[in-house]
Specification:
Length: 89
């Protein structure tokens, strides 16, 4: 059998937690139109992503890609850090 997912999904979001070892929690926000009233509202989803080098910090904007299940809740892998968070003094 051939590979089923030749084009894996890619998401961009903001890191909201880095307290786990080699895992970050990424919040992905999307804007959708309300079905009845038509107002644009924000919906968010949290995903756990594998960060091999523990390089992410809270507030970073990152890109994650879907991969095989690494653990019970972790099926995403960190691809790149798009933008670093500003360091507070």
């Amino acid at each position: 059998m051939s590979e089923t997912s030749s084009n894996p999904r890619t998401l961009t979001g903001r890191v909201v937690s880095d307290k786990m070892d080699r895992t970050v929690t990424v919040m992905v926000e999307r804007r959708v139109r309300h079905p009845l009233y038509g107002k644009i509202i924000r919906r968010s989803t949290k995903v756990h992503a594998h960060d091999e080098e523990n390089s992410c910090r809270v507030g970073d904007t990152v890109r994650v890609v879907e991969c095989r299940p690494i653990s019970k809740s972790k099926t995403w892998r960190l691809v790149e850090i798009v933008e670093r968070a500003e360091q507070e003094a």
